[in-house]
Write a structure and sequence with these properties.
The protein is an all-alpha fold and 153 residues long. The chain is 82% helix and 0% strand.
């Protein structure tokens, strides 16, 4: 026996299904595939550039490619471009490392009006996870310390 609450819930679900936009799954998959592949192709192009032109190898090569891709993802998020790419490509834009950069920068930008500590920093921790943010922050700090020590000695 249906109660009035069940009828209201069903009416609401019917209404939501009626007004929700219909998705074309094949088109969405194709967009995700080619955009994700294009982002990875940019990374591969950067790898060839750093390997052939700059002469990097091994871990240095991988690190520089990752740094540039994270920077580009953060920059495009800051400029509002990555959100449009995400709306167009869906999951294809979050799979590469640039999606990681977007997931860290987006909440930081959204909550910057609440201040640097309670807004920007706190929201970066809730979305990206403390381990990721601490790991990136610690690696930058260690890199700076290493750079200073290397230059002095």
């Amino acid at each position: 026996m249906k109660t009035s609450k069940d009828c209201v819930n069903q009416n609401y679900l019917d209404f939501v299904a009626e007004i929700s936009p219909k998705t074309n799954e094949k088109r969405s998959l194709l967009r995700a595939f080619w955009v994700g592949g294009f982002i990875c192709s940019i990374g591969q192009g950067l790898r060839y550039f750093f390997q052939e032109v700059v002469g990097l190898t091994g871990d240095e090569l991988a690190s520089y490619v990752s740094i540039v891709l994270i920077f580009l993802g953060s920059l495009l998020t800051g400029l509002g471009v990555y959100d449009r790419i995400g709306k167009y490509a869906g999951g294809g834009s979050i799979v590469p490392i640039t999606g990681f950069a977007n997931s860290v920068v987006s909440p930081a930008m959204e909550f910057k009006t609440e201040g640097y500590i309670y807004g920007t920093a706190a929201k970066m921790f809730t979305v990206a996870g403390p381990i990721i943010v601490f790991g990136v922050s610690a690696s930058v700090l260690v890199g700076l310390i290493y750079f200073v020590i290397y230059r002095i000695f």
